[in-house]
Specification:
single chain, mainly alpha, 12 helices, 0% strand, globular
Length: 206
């Protein structure tokens, strides 16, 4: 998994070569799982979108297909996670807590949710781990579904489009292409900065 994340360009290019249009199904599954399953927050999200956009710039993938397919994947994942939280809620979480997920992740997401309300669904798109738990918490909290879908749609469009287009335009610059592993690590690090900031604030408050 670590090798896959750090060398996304190589692996995605190989998948596109070996499986053709089926690679869009593979990308759909990854984005859907990372967004829709509380046991899969470790899957690549931001970096995957950036690299996929860069491959569009090379002609290995088509941006006009990639963006709508992955928007649907993100929206479907959000909705799945919402209804898992709404129907099964804390019973499911308590059953798997300590095995696949940690209660502190849920608690941090709840805190973020309390501070930002419905906009959390949009903000969470750009925050690893939080984006996996935000729709789950929305379901547990019985957030009105029509409101949830509205925020989820806006967040899905903003997240998928911004990172894919950024990869399309900047991913093949020589300085980026020659240091793509470092760029991927930087994207992951920057994505976790808000969570790191909250952790430091929490430690200082204690």
């Amino acid at each position: 998994m670590i090798d896959f994340i750090l060398h996304l360009d190589t692996h995605l290019l190989a998948l596109a070569h070996d499986y053709g249009y089926w690679v869009y199904g593979i990308l759909f599954a990854i984005i859907f799982a990372e967004t829709g399953l509380v046991v899969a927050p470790f899957l690549p999200g931001d970096s995957l979108l950036f690299v996929a956009g860069a491959l569009c710039g090379l002609g290995a993938l088509q941006l006009e297909l990639l963006i709508p397919i992955l928007i649907v994947a993100a929206l479907a994942g959000d909705n799945t996670n919402y209804w898992i939280g709404r129907i099964l809620g804390l019973r499911l979480f308590d059953k798997f807590a300590g095995r696949f997920v940690k209660r502190e992740h849920l608690d941090k997401t709840r805190t973020f949710y309390a501070e930002h309300g419905g906009k959390t669904i949009i903000f969470a798109r750009f925050l690893p781990i939080v984006r996996t738990f935000a729709p789950f918490v929305a379901g547990i909290g019985l957030m009105r579904y029509t409101t949830f879908v509205m925020f989820s749609l806006v967040g899905s469009i903003a997240w998928i489009s911004s990172l894919s287009v950024a990869g399309y335009f900047f991913g093949n610059f020589p300085v980026v292409k020659n240091n793509l592993t470092l760029i991927i690590v930087a994207i992951i690090f920057i994505s976790f900065l808000p969570a790191l900031n909250e952790f430091i604030k929490h430690k200082r408050s204690r």
